[in-house]
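Morning!

As promised:
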Amino acid sequence: MTALRALLVRDLRIALRIGGGAMMGVLFFLTVVTLMPFAIGPDLALLRRIGPAILWIGALLASLLALDRLFAADHDDGSLDLLLMGRAPVELAVAVKGLAHWIATGLPLVVAAPILGLFLNLEPAGLGAVVLTLLVGTPALTFTGLIGAALATALRRGGLLLPVLVLPLTVPVLIFGVAASNAAVVGPVPFGTPFTILCALTLTSLVVGPFAAGATLRHGME
Amino acid sequence: MDLIGSDLACVRGQREVFSGLGFRVAGGEALLLVGPNGAGKSSLLRLIAGLVHRAAGTLTLDGGDPELSVPEQAHYLGHQDALKPSLTVTENLAFWIDWLGGDRAALAAALEAVALAEIADLPAGYLSAGQRRRLSIARLVAVSRPVWLLDEPTSALDVASQARLAALMKAHLAGGGLLVAATHGPLGLDDARELRLGGTA
Amino acid sequence: MAWIDLANPTRFLRLVDRALPWLTALTVFAFAYALNGAFGAPDDYQQGATVKIMFIHVPAAWLGMFCWGMMTISALGTLVFRHPLADVAAKAAVPLGAAFTFVCLVTGALWGRPMWGTYWVWDARLTSVLVMFVMYLGLIALWRTVEDPTRAGRAAAILTLVGALNLPIIKFSVDWWNTLHQPASVVRVDGPAIHPSILIPLLAMTLAFTLLFVALHLAAMRNEILRRRVRTLRLLQAQGARGA
């Protein structure tokens, strides 16, 4: 337990200090959402209708693009070797790193979402639904992304490989996240149905992500 | 305590680095791996540390903790220092103590042993290569593990630091520990056995 | 001569220490005068008391732009004249510019709610300010990513200059984009010509805000110089300990 807590604290510290990327995700999120109306047009009624989708796409890209250095940074400076030689299972180490990354990158997205929702003229019910679905859904994005981050590290390839590998895996999360947000505003399905499925997807990813990523890191060692 | 490897083989990227390799190191003993570049010194160390896949053979630590695997009882000092530049010297070492299962009470003494106590509060990014190396070595002192795996441990160290490292290694051996080191030069150990890799064994 | 004198950070620090109390007093006085005028100004016949948001909104918008202008001059100072205080000035200005632009956006949203019935419309002027705000945040991110201040200073200076060239283009594009799409529901802010009873407090408020900016900027520059000295001392400490 001491070891895992130390890892959590270390990763959060690195993210928050100079050179860390804690606020970068939110900034990217803000930029994407700001650009959308330039492509779509300033029609507030239209923006309100597709607002949840814009926010979800922005959050999806922001949480995945920030992931590619998660294990690569530790690999480059030799830390990953020592992390694998600890007494805690690799899967738990990976899960803790994912948790730290979500707190530093995913959680700020959830906090920023209602402010960005105002730009898109979302009504209070819609704002609440988007925030709730993002709160439940962004961990699924991060933990699915762990697999891609581990693969990119094991294969010594950064950049766009991770999104290319991971984006298809996030399709179900996107579908049910946006569906639940829309259901809260326009129906016809009740909010609970897609939201429950979203919760189930998140719980699954919390288990599958660390195991797959842990196995990848272990076998990625030549 | 004996670290015994028998019939070990290592394959990296379709190429067989070595095969049929055996060795035995007893407690209090040092084994130096010597040989030309590419002979597999680093690979053997990483194999013992569990960081490289073992294609064949067995590896056991007789007299060690039966609950733990060999890598969990070993320190690995690789080419990289495993430090985060934005964390301070103390924070870096404290994390590795917690992660590798040591006691934080040993932190101050370990920094003292590598002569970094006076800059304990500086970010590791401000340190020179030699200082970073010493901070990395402090990890071995702070957390007690019986097997030390050292890959070119003296690189970037000045003469005084090399002498200090030699003293630390002697103390480790005197305490019943063992070490395996890949090296091109002398380490300052009195009676170390050599294992020649590559060419005529 | 004075400019060259100021190139010496120590002399600059001494000047700041002497000037800052006076500047603070002047700012307080200016705010007292301007606030008195602002509260005394008549309510708008259409908007009622909400029009008073203008007394914060307009000066904040002015400073958001003023700050980028100042950073542009500093960027030239960094790249062309290699003035040692230029990138200190640029770095100290970024959070201030972002903060004033943020105040401008927030007050604009609060003003928009009673006027337009919504917190935000993609009006050309608002949108340009939002883009500027994002660019400020980008600069902050740049300063935070690179630890070495001289390297970060060069990169930030180039980005600031590119931004200064780009901001008019962005403004023009946004205007074009907006007239293309302009929905009929949006009411323009520009009312009839401003009456002197409002104009004078507004100008006083703008002056007070500018004084506040200058005071905060000088203090931030002082902090940045001290922060860099601490960094240098710690680097020296690491070097000194090397042989030990």
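The domain at 2-196 of chain B is CATH 3.40.50.300 (Rossmann fold).

Hope this helps with the figure draft.
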